[in-house]
Amino acid sequence: xxxxVQGAGVVVTGxxxxxxxxxxxxxxxxxxRVVVNDLDAGKAKAVAEEIGGTAVPxxxxxxxxxxxxxxxxxxxxxxxxxxxxxxxxEAAEESVWELAWDVNVMAHVRAARALIPGWLERGSGRFxxxxxxxxxxxxxxxxxxxxxxxxxxxxAEWLSLTYRHRGIKVHAICPQGVRTDMLEATGTAGDLVLxxxxxxxxxxxxxxxxxxxxxxxxxxxxxxxxxxxxxRATDPDRWLNGxxxxxxxxxxxx
Length: 254
What we know:
Its EC number is 1.-.-.-. Belongs to the short-chain dehydrogenases/reductases (SDR) family. It is an enzyme of class 1 (oxidoreductase). Keywords: Oxidoreductase. The structure is a single chain. The protein has about 250 residues and is an alpha/beta fold. The chain has one domain (about 5-254): NAD(P)-binding Rossmann-like Domain (Rossmann fold), CATH 3.40.50. The chain has ten helices and seven strands. It has a seven-stranded parallel sheet, sandwiched between helices. The longest helix is centred in the middle third of the chain and has 29 residues, at about 95-120.
């Protein structure tokens, strides 16, 4: 059992399935009191009943107050997990870009805005962002997703460097392919890039808990992402050439 989360009040957004449900189950198994959030009220209720938690359905951007009330007044851990896997190029409709920005970035900002003052006052709190390896690297065929996941990672970094000396812990989870509905929605691009090394949602939860125990910011359920991230930083042109090769392979196979 991880002592840091035993008895903690935890909120997991987008927890009706996939990574969110796996996180909710793991926190509950570790002795936390869990609020399960999802836009789909039925899915949120089903997971909450399974783990002995509380369902607070609705838009992840607006549920902090209700979740806090459900936990008796205090949120100790907030998992900003809800996301949208929007594909497309620069030509994607404005509404597509706006949705990706709102869910993948601004929902995190709004949650932090509601949580940080109280956490600073008491000197503790834990913010978990489900980002994606796309936030460190990129994803072919998915400009809105890649760009907003980079922003989500940047915001998590900013929170960590700004508040870590004041007791606030931040973790950024950056997996590649995970066997969820979102992976199914990535189509042929996901088949090429993500599916061959896809892992289970429970593996992501396990990686997070190892990171909590080791007090690490960056959580890499696919350890090889560290090497890709380093290569991108040290020789960006070589890395971009390699990714362009993947892009051309994808285009030729469509």
